[in-house]
UniProtKB/TrEMBL annotation, chain A:
GO terms for molecular function: sarcosine oxidase activity. This is Sarcosine oxidase subunit alpha. Residues 321-356 form the MnmG N-terminal domain. Its cofactor is FAD. Keywords: FAD, Flavoprotein, Oxidoreductase. The keyword Flavoprotein applies. InterPro entries: FAD/NAD-bd_sf (IPR036188), FAD/NAD-binding_dom (IPR023753), Metab_Enz_Cyan_OpOx_G3PDH (IPR051691), MnmG_N (IPR040131). Its EC number is 1.5.3.1. It is an enzyme of class 1 (oxidoreductase). Residues 8-169 form the FAD/NAD(P)-binding domain.
UniProtKB/TrEMBL annotation, chain B:
Keywords: Oxidoreductase. It is an enzyme of class 1 (oxidoreductase). InterPro entries: 2Fe-2S-bd_N, 2Fe-2S_ferredoxin-like_sf. Pfam families: Fer2_4. This is Sarcosine oxidase subunit alpha. It comes from Croceifilum oryzae. The lineage of its organism: Bacteria, Bacillati, Bacillota, Bacilli, Bacillales. GO terms for molecular function: iron-sulfur cluster binding; sarcosine oxidase activity. The keyword Kinase does not apply.
From TrEMBL, chain C:
GO terms for cellular component: cytoplasm. It comes from Croceifilum oryzae. Pfam families: DAO (PF01266). Residues 7-368 form the FAD dependent oxidoreductase domain. The keyword tRNA processing does not apply. The lineage of its organism: Bacteria, Bacillati, Bacillota, Bacilli, Bacillales. This is Sarcosine oxidase subunit beta.
Length: 407, 111, 394
């Protein structure tokens, strides 16, 4: 084990939130900043993302990440990859952080560990070739190896549609995007009505006129039940993707790896229609069960939590300035709730200003920057292309209220 | 020869420029790119089976791809069990699939 | 809020409460268990599963364990669910000649009372344990010691008790105990209403002290924290329990020869292989209140100790660690007792590091005591009176 390293601010997670926080704070002042991440390279989930903006230009996560990394390098921030954090301990003057490469002592600690995917057990899901939708994204976009030639996607949500589109761009055939079987583990997205409701959130981003019309109308007039019953059985093409809201994946077949899937038609409420089962040959299956904040480290530190379904799960209690209830401990990015990368970046900048402010050297100078940063997070959230949930603002208010109650 | 799974010319992301190196998997000599995760190098060689379940012996592969789920454990000579999705490939690595184990307590002997 | 009634209300759904519920239900009593969280959500899921006589003084201590071992082997037939029961015996290993001498004395004392103990020489240890460190001098064996999965055993007793008519109320807190004008138990107040009853069993483990205070009784039960590491699945290292003898040296008035941290955290090796090919490595003993946070320094100390005995472990990944609070008492014996001052109030708590071992015998004698039968073993040595003078201090 190496000797104990010392720093002023340690950031766990080199995703958009962590990298933005590091770049912002180190540009501002003479502060020793260290970022660590267990992935072999910095960038977090930015590395796998790209999407088309409203003006039809492409927003490419890898390029955004490269830019943040350069800013950090120029500012002298140390980014260490391949290092896992597994323990935290509060000291009288900061934090002791236990990592796979030894202990680090820091005055301030920012947790920016992002999100993880909700697993969704389906018959056959342990076969090699079945992976989470995020893994398919990482294979194709980060490492540039196809997860397979022909795939099937289970689970209809914002992320599965966005990634399906990316896979098609990479030259991978997607045989269908369908609902999971309506069983014990099924989540709200299982039935067509709920799925359509979700799709309405994508309405602006959906170039297909049907979706734009269908989405807006459904949102305004709450007609999604009607759409569910009208939805054509053979599916529709959204962004050229074969979306099948009246089909469920029943099981995944194969001896030692994926060979095919069995799918079936479902009724409006999600029940399988007998006799409609059919087999489709594929060599991989991607499961999209949704995201939840990866907050174990906050739990280890001793943070209180609040379960907030709109934000994806259990959230460490924090305030609008991203301070937790524990001394010198901050959170930013998806650990505070599932949202897109641009929001995570804005939160990273906010956390940097919040820490500078608390460090207390130039409080009068920092206050307006801090308030601007808070406003910026809200603005970025409002205009984000991909919205994970429509009620994020009000859900966040509940957490801030609980913070006040705790303090 | 099966079609390569590598995306050599991605329309938006361009090309990967990394050095080609050699390693072995279950004794078989293979090639991969230096620094890419072991699981990726294996997938590019059409290998999806990373281990056998210790108890049932059923085949297992990569699931989350980013270090969270621990499904992709392989044996790396000199290191023991490692996560194939996070461990960068190096020249000459000797890797084996995680194997089914006999169970001395239940008395199951096949492995 | 509703009012129900029962013959007996048991406070606590740990292994002690569920054993008591099972044996009472078997005798036909109408039982309600009140548990603030989940069944086995307390210490009974944060422990090992050893049912040991190897470390007990011959006499009353070991008699209790041996009776319990017999009862558990019968539970395998009686209960509705399997609980990974095995009886492969257990061993203690020695690091020095001094320890070997003490071990020999221990074995002789046990053999005198007819217990199945024997010494193991270096060769025997070597041939059974191919991964044990080379410099281990030898050890001793107790042939009847057994092992269970404590969570499954607790659940199995719970579902069987339920089948026999017991009612389990989880996520329900006991908030008070109601006494009649004569001072006898008349009911239990819970977060979901009053339960009328004439008999209450305090089986609340480390939380039994505040429950006893509800009827004005002081019992010296304190939390003694222990950590455990869980390994990933590996090739078999061994199939039965191994502990280090050095921890027993204090019984011989000798000091343990270990480093300062090992001493401070009370770390001694407990190696427990499980049926799923993981193993559990323990453990530590500390008085740090109700703090349930994992202390990484303790974990590291336990790991070092384990690697000292099994060098191969340095390459085996740890999956996770957990800690639990043993319900300690000053003389390390449980309180299994009626409380004369409060007719109808019983205590079955304070089993410290032996609650899994002693659950079956505790439940059995509690059921006998409450229904007015003669008890399988005498419970006089376990009466709460023995602490009356020193109650409250440690
Ligand atoms: C699989 C997946 C795919 C996604 N795809 C999209 C998408 O296509 N579009 C979109 O808008 N959003 C997507 N998201 C949401 C994504 O979380 C946000 O877009 C954004 O990346 C969040 O930024 P962040 O900085 O909070 O976390 P991340 O970008 O997730 O970065 C967190 C970093 O912390 C590291 N880390 C975590 N725990 C530890 C530890 N204990 N020790 C050391 N390092 C640790 C991780 O390795 C990771 O690099 C995806 C999320 C996931 C999980
Ligand atoms: C690390 C470790 C290793 C161990 N290894 C072994 C071993 O190998 N062999 C062995 O024999 N023993 C072992 N033990 C000891 C054993 O685990 C305990 O003695 C035993 O679990 C105690 O059981 P219990 O039912 O008394 O307590 P618990 O299991 O804690 O049950 C008490 C229950 O009461 C409930 N409760 C408390 N207050 C209230 C209230 N107001 N209202 C309602 N419910 C309430 C709690 O929620 C809890 O579920 C070990 C312990 C530890 C910590």
């Amino acid at each position: 084990m190496s000797e104990v390293q010392q720093t002023d601010l340690l950031i766990v997670g080199a995703g958009p939130a962590g990298l933005s926080a590091a770049a912002t704070i180190s540009a501002d002042r003479d502060f020793r900043v260290m970022v660590i991440d267990e992935f072999p390279e910095p960038g977090g989930r930015l590395l796998g993302q790209f999407h088309e903006e409203r003006n039809h230009s492409w927003w490419i996560g890898k390029i955004v990440a490269a830019d943040l990394i350069i800013q950090n390098t120029l500012a002298g921030v140390m980014i260490q990859c391949g290092v896992s954090v597994y323990g935290l301990e509060l000291l009288p003057d900061g934090w002791r952080v236990l990592t796979s490469k030894g202990d680090i002592r820091t005055k301030y600690l920012l947790l920016a560990t992002g999100a993880a995917e909700v697993p969704m057990p389906i018959s056959g899901w342990t076969l090699p070739g079945v992976m989470s939708i995020g893994a398919a994204q990482v294979m194709a976009n980060v490492h540039q190896v196809k997860p397979g030639e022909r795939g099937y996607i289970v689970g209809v949500n914002v992320l599965s549609l966005a990634i399906a589109k990316e896979l098609v761009v990479a030259g991978i055939e997607i045989e269908g995007i369908a609902l999971p079987p309506d069983d014990l583990f099924a989540m709200e997205e299982t039935n067509p009505v709920a799925a359509i409701e979700l799709l309405t959130r994508l309405s602006d981003a959906a170039p297909a006129p049907w979706m734009r019309w269908g989405g807006k109308l459904a949102q305004k007039m709450k007609l999604s039940r009607l759409i569910a019953s009208c939805f054509p059985k053979k599916g529709v093409k959204v962004w050229d993707l074969p979306l099948q809201l009246r089909t469920a994946l029943v099981s995944i077949q194969g001896v030692d790896q994926v060979e095919s899937v069995i799918v079936a038609d479902v009724t409006r409420s999600g029940e399988i229609i007998e006799g409609s089962q059919r087999e489709i040959e594929v060599d991989f299956v991607a499961i999209a069960g949704g995201l939840y904040p990866l907050a174990e480290l906050a739990a280890l530190a001793g943070c209180p939590f609040l379960y907030v379904s709109e934000l994806g799960g259990n959230i460490p209690v924090h305030n609008e300035r991203l301070k937790t209830t524990l001394p010198n401990l901050y959170v930013a990015g998806n650990i505070t709730g599932v949202e897109g990368a641009q929001v995570a970046m804005a939160q990273g900048r906010l956390a940097a200003h919040s820490i500078s402010y608390d460090a207390g050297w130039f409080a009068c100078e920092e206050e307006p920057k801090l308030l601007d940063a808070i406003a910026e997070v809200k603005e970025v959230r409002r205009s984000a292309m991909i919205q994970f949930h429509p009620e994020i603002d009000s859900a966040r208010k509940r957490i801030y209220e609980l913070f006040e109650h705790w303090m | 020869m099966r079609k390569s799974l590598r995306i050599n010319h991605h329309p938006l992301l361009g090309e990967m420029d990394k050095k080609v190196i050699s390693f072995t998997y279950n004794g078989e000599k293979l090639q991969g790119l230096e620094g890419e995760p072991i699981a990726v190098a294996l997938l590019a060689n059409h290998i999806r089976i990373l281990r056998r379940h210790e108890e049932s012996g059923s085949a297992r592969g990569l699931y989350c791809g980013i270090g969270h789920c621990m499904e992709c454990r392989v044996e790396l000579l000199g290191k023991g069990q490692v996560r194939a999705c996070l461990t960068p490939l190096k020249e000459g690595m000797e890797i084996r699939e995680g194997s089914r184990l006999p169970n001395a307590i239940t008395g199951r002997v096949d492995s | 809020m509703t009012t129900e009634s029962a013959d007996v209300v048991i406070i606590g759904g740990g292994i002690i409460g569920m054993a008591t519920a099972y044996y009472l239900a078997k005798l036909g009593s109408d039982v309600v268990v009140v548990e603030k969280g989940e069944i086995a959500g307390g210490t009974s899921s944060k422990c090992d599963g050893n049912i040991l006589a190897i470390d007990k003084e011959p006499g009353f201590d070991s008699q209790m364990s041996l009776e319990s071992q017999k009862l558990v082997s019968q539970l395998v037939m009686e209960l509705d669910e399997e609980f990974e029961y095995r009886a492969p015996g257990s061993i203690l290993v020695c690091e020095s000649d001094e320890e070997m001498e003490a071990a020999e004395m221990w074995v002789n004392r046990q053999k005198e009372v007819g217990l199945p103990f024997r010494m193991l020489d270096r060769g025997e240890i070597r041939s059974e344990w191919k991964y044990m460190a080379d410099d281990i001098h030898g050890g001793l064996e107790c042939a009847t010691d057994s092992t269970v999965n404590p969570v499954l055993l607790t659940y199995s007793m719970a579902v069987t008790a339920e089948r026999l008519g017991a009612r389990l109320k989880t996520h329900t807190w006991v908030t008070g105990i109601r006494l009649d004008p004569s001072g006898a138990v008349e009911g239990v107040e819970t977060s979901s209403g009053l339960i009328r009853t004439k008999h209450v069993v305090n089986a609340a483990g480390v939380w039994s002290k505040p429950i006893a205070q509800m009827v004005g009784i002081e019992i010296p039960v304190e939390p003694r924290k222990g950590h455990i590491l869980v390994s990933s699945r590996t090739e078999s290292i061994g199939t039965r329990k191994v502990m280090e003898f050095s921890y027993l040296m204090s019984k011989f008035g000798k000091e343990r020869k270990v480093d300062q941290l090992t001493e401070q955290y009370g770390v001694a090796l407990v190696f427990e292989p499980t049926a799923s090919q993981n193993f559990l490595i323990g453990s530590s003993r500390e008085f740090v209140g109700f703090d349930m946070k994992i202390n990484v320094d303790v974990i590291r100390c336990i790991a070092r100790r384990a690697i000292r005995f099994f060098p191969v472990m340095k390459d085996i990944p740890v999956l996770r660690s957990y800690c639990g609070l043993r319900p300690w008492t000053p003389d390390h014996l449980p309180i299994v007792s009626r409380v004369e001052e409060v007719p109808g109030f019983y205590i079955a708590a304070g089993h410290e590091g032996d609650g899994i071992s002693l659950a079956a015998i505790t439940g059995k004698v509690m059921s006998e005591c409450i229904t007015g039968q003669e008890t399988t073993i005498s419970i006089e040595p376990l009466h709460y009176n023995r602490f009356k003078k020193e109650a409250g201090k440690r």
